[in-house]
Structures are given as C-alpha cells and as structure tokens.
Automatic annotation (TrEMBL):
Highest taxon listed in the record's lineage: Bacteria
One of the Pfam families matching this protein, by short name: Pentapeptide_4
Protein name: Pentapeptide repeat-containing protein
Entries under InterPro entries matching the protein: 5peptide_repeat, PA_immunity-related
Amino acid sequence: MAAYFDDETFKGIDFTKKVIVKGEYDNCTFLNCNFSGIYASNIGFIECEFINCNFSNADISNTAFKTVTFIECKMLGLKFNKCDPFLLALNFKDCQLNVSSFYQLNVPNISFVNCNLQEVDFTEANISKGVFDNCDLRNAVFNRTKLEKANFSSAYNFNINPTNNFIKKALFSKENVIGLLESFDVRLE
C-alpha cells in the first residue's frame, strides 16, 4: 500500500541522499529541499507548495501535480509533458524553468510570475488564460500553442508567430508587441 502524507512540512531534505517515499502528499509543504536529478515518478502531490527547492533534471514521469505551487524553485530541464495530466494544475513564482518542456500539455490558467522561461518548449500546449507576468521567454518555443486570453502584457524576449499559434484575445503591451512581429522580419521605429 502506498504511503499517505497529509498537511506535513518537509524541511531541508536532500532527496539525492534520502529516497523520497512513493505515495500521495496532500496539502504538504516542501521547504529548501533538493530533488535534483532524482527519480520522482509515480508520486502524487495534491495542493502542495514547494518553496526554494531544486528540481533540476528530476524524472517526474507519471508524477501527479494537482494544484501545486512552486516558489523560488530551480527547475531546469524538467519534462512536465511526461507527468500525469489528470487534474494537472501548476503555478510558478520566482522560478527558473529554463530548457523545460510543456509539450502538448493541457494547462489552461497556468501562472508564471517573475520566472525565467528561456528555451522552454510550449509546442501544441493549451495555455489559454495563462499568465506570464514579468517573465523572460528568450528562445521559448510557441508552435501551434493555444494562447487565447493569455496575458503577456509584462512578458519579454518572446517570439510568437500569430499565424501558427492561437492568440485570439491574448493580452500584449505596446512595448512588447514586437515579439509578435519578429517572425515576419518587420521593424518598428
């Protein structure tokens, strides 16, 4: 029988040295924990919060993230497209997610606040009504991505081609609209 943890706080644990117990974590907080490079598959996180944790290059295949918030986390190279898509709901604040993948994920209403999203793959993902508040999207890939009603008003360094993405009613600012024109090789003065 899988382990069950409810309303617990895990503080300063280095899971590269101590194996994470497979099971379900409900309403738990992980503070200053290291998940870097570990095999964290087939674990369920429901309404959990991760603060100042390192998830870089962790294997999150079939891991469930149901209404999970990441704050000040380092999450380089994560393949969110391999995690359990059922009831997947993610929010990120002050996180580094460079070279991560959301390929074909259905994550409407996802929120990124003050995040570094360089070289992140959003190909064919549904990010409608998503928020990219003050996020660096340099070399992020948007291809056949659903971005309807998404908020990019304070995002920067993005290149989104309006002809091969779905951007109806997405919000952009006058300052960053150039990110919609770069693929057309248009210059503004």
